[in-house]
Specification:
It is found in: Endomembrane system. With 268 residues, this protein is an alpha+beta fold. It has two helices and 19 strands.
Length: 268
């Protein structure tokens, strides 16, 4: 389903996006606002299944913020600390801004990760950063895929998908729709799957939600369902009474049948 992007309004919250159909995303937890042990840095470059060995580059980026939090940038990146993403080579001879962020245009950078006609919001989101510095005949550009997965954060890879166009992929349950809750145990309490609810009404899809494994229930799958034994003895005592009455009735008719049979035998 094609996504429609609109300019962020005054009331729009950076890092939060309401997509269609009926799915909301909140990636603000991924933003690094001060120097810390955490960093978004990856060195990658060589493309598999090709004869050529492509040069390796290091990428440092941030979500909805700049890279000034990272204290180990090479001196060639001194003028890029207000960038949201930078790239530099093995010897750091050059450092390039490949993506920027402006909260006034927050809604314009979002799209669903699933680009199929029936785009599934439970797969995650893609952030297309605002253009970076000039590169040959165009500007450098970056998109970051945040794939919905049941772990806090995992950096999967970075690559140059075309000349001066870059792509970084991460996995995190923060990239899942908020309609699929995350508990201390994980996405859907690690007891279910975040999936889109299908609906035949007008050919549209419903909201994503947690589909719980057998024996689990609740919006986040954190509750246990009663076992059949518990249900019989506790939740539905009337079922026990009915079963008991049926057994007594069968015993009564069995006894009557035995008496009739013995009487007939005596007469004969």
């Amino acid at each position: 389903m094609q996504q429609t992007h609109v300019l962020a309004t005054v009331d729009d919250t950076p890092g939060v996006w309401d997509s269609f159909p009926s799915a909301t995303f909140d990636l603000r937890q991924l933003t690094i606002v001060a120097p810390s042990d955490q960093s978004y840095k990856i060195t990658d470059g060589d493309i598999e299944c090709t004869q050529e060995v492509e040069a390796e580059y290091t990428y440092v980026f941030n979500f909805f913020g700049d890279v000034s939090y990272y204290g180990d940038l090479p001196h060639t990146c001194a003028n890029t600390t207000e960038s949201s993403a930078v790239q530099y080579g093995t010897h750091a001879a050059q450092c390039h801004t490949i993506g920027t962020y402006d909260p006034a245009y927050d809604d314009m950078i979002w799209s669903l990760y699933d680009k199929s006609p029936d785009a599934d919001p439970s797969k995650g989101v893609t952030l297309s950063y605002l253009p970076g510095e000039a590169c040959k005949h165009k500007e450098r550009s970056l998109r970051v895929n945040v794939v919905c997965a049941n772990h806090a954060y995992r950096l999967m890879g970075a690559k140059e998908i075309d000349s001066c166009e870059y792509e970084i992929t991460v996995e995190s349950y923060i990239g899942c729709p908020r309609e699929c809750p995350v508990t201390q145990a994980g996405l859907c309490h690690s007891q279910g799957l975040c999936m889109m609810e299908l609906s035949d009404t007008f050919g549209l899809h419903g909201s994503p939600r947690c589909y719980c494994y057998e024996g689990r229930k609740g919006s986040d799958c954190s509750e246990k369902t009663h076992s059949s034994k518990e249900t019989t003895s506790g939740s539905h005592p009337e079922a026990v009474q009915i079963t008991f009455l049926v057994i007594l009735t069968l015993m009564f008719f069995g006894l009557v049948g035995a008496v009739v049979y013995m009487t007939m035998q005596a007469i004969n």
